[in-house]
């Protein structure tokens, strides 16, 4: 924290989130439930991007869980020979 209550370095005290809404409908979201882009099937967005807003507590464990879930899906797709 800097004098006056401002945050100095981005990411130093908070998790930046947003910009890649997750959902089933490509008309209202960028990512599917596995954090894969609707429009570009070989691009996954892990981290805080799928979150629309930030909660009161750190979201690190949720980010990690979404990443593991997405990676499991990616591995399964590779095993099935999906492009």
Give an overview in words.
- With 83 residues, this protein is mostly helical.
- It has one domain (15-77).
- 24% of the residues lie in helices and 0% in strands.
- It has 1 helix and no strands.
- The protein is elongated, with a radius of gyration of 15 Å.
- The model has no long low-confidence stretch (mean pLDDT 83).
Record keyword descriptors for this entry.
single chain; 83 residues; mainly alpha
What is the total tally of β strands?
0
Task: Give the helix level as a range of percent.
Answer: 10-25%
Mean pLDDT across the residues is: 83
Instruction: Find the structural class using helix and strand composition.
Output: mainly alpha
Give the gist of this structure.
The protein is mostly helical and 83 residues long. The protein is built from 1 helix and no strands. The mean pLDDT is 83.
Tell me the layout of helices and strands.
Blueprint: H1 60-79
């Amino acid at each position: 924290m800097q004098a006056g209550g401002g945050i100095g370095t981005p990411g130093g005290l908070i998790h930046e989130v947003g910009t890649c809404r997750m959902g089933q409908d490509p008309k209202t979201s960028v990512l599917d439930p596995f954090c894969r882009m609707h429009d570009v099937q070989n691009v996954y967005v892990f981290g805080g991007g799928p979150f629309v807003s930030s909660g009161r507590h750190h979201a690190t464990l949720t980010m990690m869980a979404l990443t593991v879930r997405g990676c499991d899906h990616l591995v399964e797709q590779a095993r099935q020979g999906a492009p």
